Records
---
Amino acid sequence: MTRALSFFILIAALTFGAMGPGFAVEPNERLADPALEARARGISDHLRCLVCQNETIDDSHADLAHDLRVLVRERLTAGDSDSQTIAFITARYGDFVLLKPPVKGATLVLWYGPLAILLIGAVGTVVWFRRRKMTGVEEPAPLTDVERSRLKQMMTEGES
Amino acid sequence: MQRLLFVIPVVLFLGLAAYFGLALTRDPSTLPSALIDKPAPAFALAGLGTKPPLARDDFAGQVVLVNFFASWCVPCRAEHPILMRMAEQEKLTLYGIAYKDRPEDAQRFLTQLGDPYSRIGVDQSGRVGIDFGVYGVPETYVIDKAGNIRLRHVGPLTASDLQNEILPLLKQLGRS
């Protein structure tokens, strides 16, 4: 039992350990200063590898990703702030290199489009329900004398 | 008014569908350059073998083509005949940058296939490539007289790229 359990824990540790982020960062790329290295990891976690396109440069084994990781660390060591480092990269590769697109004119639809569509839908739904309430649910007109006497007749016919 | 409310979502949906449909016809591996209409980055690279070095200021005032290539790059071999044709038949000025390649390998590549370049810079570290926003060789840049990048072509040049894209642009830029 304990053996099976420890085997299970071992498998789990191996699986999830391997799935951890930053799998591609090689030991010789790391900076000696842990604070700088942490900043570098934070930055490269948000930069797209342009070769693989849906991986961060932190995760990618592509040659260019390696070069960009080294470049990010160089900029930070040279005293650049995080935003200066990111600006250095986007000046060369454009906003596409950012996995999270910046909020600006061309990306407004991207950021707020879904919210706008949701609002339009919500307003439409509210208007539709209100209209139905106003027009659809009218009080039925009371029965006329003729109708009432006919109803009475039908009821007594049924009884006999 | 009420009818309009029902039409809006349909119109929005059709618009989105058309947009996504169009996007399907585009090649997602071809990225726009961040440097279009911006000055080409300054660089100064050692020359290949006995050839003179290559720096940005060498082609100031000229319309030029800069081609990033490497001996290890298979598509570069595919586009090489087109580059040769551009140099020999169209008499275009081509500058080559050997991207992340050992000089001896780049030299062997050109000895085997022919050398279409007026000058070649050796970018062994790939830093000049990064300055240009290169993300995969081959890439070809058209630089105008003012030193601005006017076109980036990603991937191997084909005969139709040359006819429909490169030559008309060069004509427009007033290549002598």
---
Amino acid sequence: MNKIEINDCTIKKVNDICEKFGNKSGELINVLHETQNTLGYLPEEVQKVVAQNLNVPLVKVYGVVSFYSFFTMKPKGEHPISLCLGTACYVRGAENVLREFEKELGIKVGEVTPDGKFSLDCLRCLGCCGLAPVCMIGDKVYGRLEPKMVKEILAEY
Amino acid sequence: MDLIKLTIDNVPVEVEPGTTILKAAEKVGIKIPTLCYMELPDVGVINNPGACRMCVVDIGGPRLFPACATTCTPNMVVKTNSPRVLNARRTVMQLILSDHPADCLLCAKNDDCELRKLAAEMGVHELPFVENCKQSHYKKSTSPSINRDQDKCIMCRRCETMCNEVESVGAIGAINRGFNAVVATAFERPLVDSNCVFCGQCVAVCPTGALTEVNNNPEVLEAIADPTKTVIVETAPSIRAALGEEFGLEPGTLVTGKMVAALRRIGFDYVFDTDFAADMTIMEEGSELVDRLTRVAKGDKSVKLPLFTSCCPAWVNFCENEYPEMLDNLSTAKSPMEMFGPVAKSMYADKLGIKRENLVVVSVMPCVAKKFERQRPEFSKDGDSDVNIVITTRELARLIKINNIDFKSLPDEDFDAPMGESTGGAVIFGNTGGVMEAAVRVAYELVTGKKPEKVEFDEVRGFEGVRMATIDFAGTPVNVAVAHELRNARKLVEMVKSGKYNLAACEVMACPGGCIGGAGQPFHHGDSNILIARHNAIYREDENKKCRRSNENKQLAEVYKEFLGKPLAGRAHELLHTRYFDRHRI
């Protein structure tokens, strides 16, 4: 998903999500979760709307967004790549796979390709360590990765 | 309810249910070291996130518990000094220090640093983790009032408690996680671009050099050394009740005379009193209140009541940020400091026969928000600020020390005329409730034409967050309210907006206890007895004054007669009143 335009429509979407959770400050994480699922990421303007609706200081919203690695303030690519760097994947060479992704895409972790097609992120454990090293592109899981497979996988998209 | 019995280091102790181990230990003379913990019970401030783990104790079992956040249970056996506890505590200190810059000699906090003091007490002299150890690096940042050096942040979260819970501003909070965690503004913007109101209570409680006031002493020294400049100084009401602490005097010692003597020796050409201007504020604000009440009585619907005081710059910032719809309720009277500036730069500069720009006005304030206030463009003329430099009580203490003055041996001296005389009404501006009391002392006479029977109005005194009182104006009841700390100001504003309270006037001060607890005062290090001692000292100074009502200030009456005219009108209106701006942001 690419950078979104902050217009009345976007703000209404955020307002509706906040409303759904009763505009309760205790629902901050749930609100952010659903907002990110809807918009793809949590830009500053969106966090401001959430802060206002839930009546919490903006820095608290930003505190939560910056604390949890799941939340992102950058727009993701059309096909978000999440590479696992958990213990099992790591010892089986996930770092080399990561380097290969970075090389092929020409971006670093946390960035989006200029055409907006791919974004690259790391996470800790997808819950299928038997497939290590593992990554997800969108909803599709790729296991037993080796650096040489990267080019081929990217070509699917 | 039954008391809980337990032993701490083999000493039996009985406490009320809900008491923390830390408090129970204090009862039997055991002082468990703390770092993030801070409590000011009299003003309702507590910070005990159990974050630093310095106060860990052994209560049996595999884990150690923080004494500040663990309540006593029956038959608990607590060890505060077993080898296991001491070892853990030492490791905690070493870990904190491993990610802390070691530039103590050059640090602004230096002798006042609680981390340094504790490390010294614990005898931590080596750091086993320093090799290959990661250190966080943040950019230093500044603002009109506050300097931040986040590398020195130990995540005690005291500042966050003050900003969020006590002041209800929410400008700063913990962001990021793990090694990168730090207290910062939203999106790590500079303070000026956040909703910070510059009350500085974060600075007042920071145990390290992460948050400090901007140091303006070099500018003072430069101005004094400049032969083309005449440098005058004014001192706020609450300085005299706190400055002595910086020189080892008991909290609550009044040092008015010594302070004046010290300022002369530093080289100020004339030493004046902000109290004089506080009397002026009361004349203007009191008249404004009476004017509004009269107009409302005549059916004028455009007049807003209650009238809110506007002496506290952090409160004014807060109101502009959060309640722009209330700006018409704010008194248009400037703060005493900002009244002093333009009067000095017009009337007094003329008297001395010097140009405005050659008169440098220095203010000594208990406050860091005053540094912000003086930079407001509306408080200047042709680019020259009405008040040129603001220094805090702490900066003044340093200024006295670097000028080789032995403060304690100084003789008592008097302020210069004409802006040195003041009444008791001005002195009590330093305490929460003081501005209201001073206003009532004068407004009573303005409304009824006679002097009030009493001069002390106990009903507005005290430390309660929001206090309401009804003052009998010779048969007419007048309802007033007082709030200190901005969380209580918020409560008060919401009460006013609810329309359920028929209030005439409200006083707000942002800091706990009012200016005596200002962020520029000597550090209280979590001891609320210090605030109480200053509070009492202010009322003592009031009692000692011959004149206690602002309208009895003879020098001020002269200034009105010769220069200002009548309150609210002509020159007084032009020089002593201001306007406010909608700065609403989240």
